[in-house]
Design goal:
It holds the Pfam family PaaB. InterPro entries: PaaB, PaaB_sf. This is Phenylacetate-CoA oxygenase subunit PaaH. This protein is of the alpha+beta class. It has a domain of 57 residues: Roll (Ubiquitin-like (UB roll)), CATH 3.10.20. Helix content is 37%, strand content 19%. It contains five helices and three strands. It has a three-stranded antiparallel sheet, covered by helices on one side. The chain is elongated.
């Protein structure tokens, strides 16, 4: 890009949703002279690829990111790991193993009860 067009184009970030219920996801950056043209370019790009429910464009300069000093405030000051659940996914596996051990064929046939006629 030469120096004349450098000030004319601005960088935009593009976000999209596949369906109305899905979350917005970052897609790519593009250069455009204004927001309207950025949206048209983003739409043209997606129309060739896949259907989408919504497209957002925003100037890259409007995105605020944390400074290194601000990032230092992210870790918690006190230890509250007890609030973070690890989940109970292991219980399903444990229960399945318990059920299989309880009533397997060998155990059922070992009962050897006589059937009533």
């Amino acid at each position: 890009m030469n120096s004349k067009t450098a000030g004319f184009f601005q960088e935009y970030e593009v976000f999209s949703k596949r369906t109305a219920a899905s979350p917005m996801q970052y897609q790519f950056s593009l250069l455009a002279p204004n927001e309207e043209m950025a949206l048209i370019l983003a739409q043209e790009n997606f129309m060739r690829r896949e259907p989408v429910a919504d497209i957002w464009v925003m100037k890259q300069s409007a995105i605020k990111k944390m400074t290194p000093d601000e990032r230092q405030s992210l870790p918690r000051l006190d230890n509250k790991d007890y609030r973070n659940t690890k989940g109970y996914g292991y219980l399903k596996k444990k229960w399945r193993k318990y059920e299989q051990e309880m009533l397997d064929e060998k155990e059922i046939f070992s009962w050897g009860g006589e059937s009533k006629k």
